[in-house]
Amino acid sequence: MQKFLKLTFAVFMMAVSTVSLADTGVKLGVVNVALLLEQAPQAKSATASLEKEFSPQQAELKSLAGKLEKQQADYQKNKSVMSDAQKVTKEREISMLTREIQRRRNDVQELLNLRRNEELAKLQNVVNEAIKTIGKKEGFDLILYEGIAYTNERIDITNDVLNHLKTVSTKQRSEFNK
């Protein structure tokens, strides 16, 4: 008998909570995080920063590639008048330079990927904070990341979050310039 009363009470409480939830209405929102990570001013700033950070290495690789092209062109032009020993020496030089360029390219790419992941992690934190701020400010009960089969545009708050990120970025820049 006691079990029946407990079960009845539990069902009653669930019904009351469902009714009160339905009375207040649940405010839902959806955000497209990929779009935010692509279009947020903070993302563009991070991309520009990475390009600036790695431009010396890119310039060095470009210079080495130019040097390799020149060596290959010279070899092709002069190989008919070279001795066999000179050909072997020149081919080794070209091969060593090719390997050096590939090694440096791999090193730069690995370092760039590490830095990109660091910047992406920072950006994801900024986006998550913006989503929380918008959620609290506008009284959302639940905000989901996009990846859902269907979303009505009415509950898509991606532009609200993007505008918030733009405002935060503008505010940070104006404070930096003071």
From TrEMBL:
Q: Secretion signal: which residues? A: 1-22
Keywords, comma-separated and alphabetical: Signal
- Known Pfam families for this protein? OmpH (PF03938)
Q: Which InterPro entries match?
A: Chaperone_Skp, Skp_dom_sf
Q: Does the keyword Transmembrane apply?
A: no
This protein's superkingdom?
A: Bacteria
* Keyword set includes Signal: yes
Tell me the protein family, please. Answer: Belongs to the skp family.
What protein name is recorded for this chain?
Outer membrane protein chaperone
What organism does the record attribute this protein to?
A: Thiomicrorhabdus immobilis
Q: What is the lineage of its organism?
A: Bacteria, Pseudomonadati, Pseudomonadota, Gammaproteobacteria, Thiotrichales
